[in-house]
Design goal:
Helix content is 73%, strand content 0%. With 261 residues, the chain is an all-alpha fold. The longest helix has 29 residues, at 104-132. The two termini are 32 Å apart.
């Protein structure tokens, strides 16, 4: 037990130091560089809101089209940001793996943690702004528990996908480009601009296989008490999260051993 506690304490210190290093590197040239990256995500949401408002899109649920779009796009951006940072960290870890006890996986965890904190703080402020400006009375979650479940599962899911992508990119360099396209078109197949339960039966059956759609639904249940959840499955999300994370860790270890030889 003492050895386990010592090991965990050492790993926490390593990840903490790498986290601080990552924040400093991102803002080394220009202060608040990371803030501009997050503002880009927020402008992405506002841009879609303006487009759909101009097209006369009717409300599906709630009292604000902006909030409905934001609660759908946020999970997609969150998934994409963490998975991309986790994958790129393994490629860019040569500068830190020369330090004793530091592995590429530690750097990947640190990068993902920085992205997690950045997105969480930015979107808490965004939803708070919607509430302060009285744009929606649903801006404050009526049930925070689904958000905790959402953040925990989607973070681990995205991290696992990032590790898998790092392995696939090592084997097939073009995979990085393919995943970039795939992560962008997810916005059209994850129930961001519509509610899957209101789609035709054939479309519902196909969309239900997409785990990101379930994460979007889980996040929205924290804001809309009447949001339909007939297709949402906690067991499906947990199964995907566990499977992806275990596979990602196994592939990261295989890739580490391959590079060592």
């Amino acid at each position: 037990m003492n050895a386990l506690a010592l090991g965990l304490s050492r790993q926490m210190r390593i990840v903490s130091a790498l986290t601080i290093r990552e924040v400093r590197l991102r803002n080394s040239k220009h202060a608040f560089t990371q803030l501009f990256d997050l503002l880009e995500a927020l402008f992405f949401i506002v841009g879609h809101w303006i487009i759909f408002t101009y097209l006369g899109r009717h409300l599906i649920i709630g009292d604000s089209l902006l909030l409905f779009i934001a609660t759908g796009i946020f999970p997609i951006l969150f998934f994409r940001a963490i998975s991309v940072k986790a994958a790129s960290a393994l490629e860019a870890s040569k500068a830190v793996t020369s330090i004793p006890f530091v592995e590429a996986l530690d750097y990947s965890i640190a990068r993902s943690f920085v992205e997690f904190l950045s997105f969480t703080v930015a979107f808490v402020a965004f939803f708070a702004m919607i509430g302060v400006l009285d744009l929606s009375r649903f801006a404050v979650p009526y049930n925070p528990f689904p958000i905790v479940q959402f953040l925990a599962m989607l973070t681990l899911f995205s991290f696992g996908i990032g590790l898998i992508n790092s392995f696939l990119t090592y084997l097939f360099p073009l995979w990085k480009f393919c995943f970039g396209i795939f992560s962008r078109i997810q916005i059209f197949f994850s129930g961001v601009f519509f509610i899957p339960e209101y789609m035709p039966p054939q479309a519902r059956e196909i969309l239900a296989y997409n785990p990101i759609m379930h994460f979007v639904a889980l996040f929205r249940t924290a804001f809309f008490s009447t949001y339909p959840t007939h297709l949402m499955s906690m067991n499906y999300m947990l199964g995907w999260t566990f499977a992806v994370l275990m596979l990602g860790l196994a592939l990261e270890r295989a890739l580490r051993n391959h590079r060592a030889h």
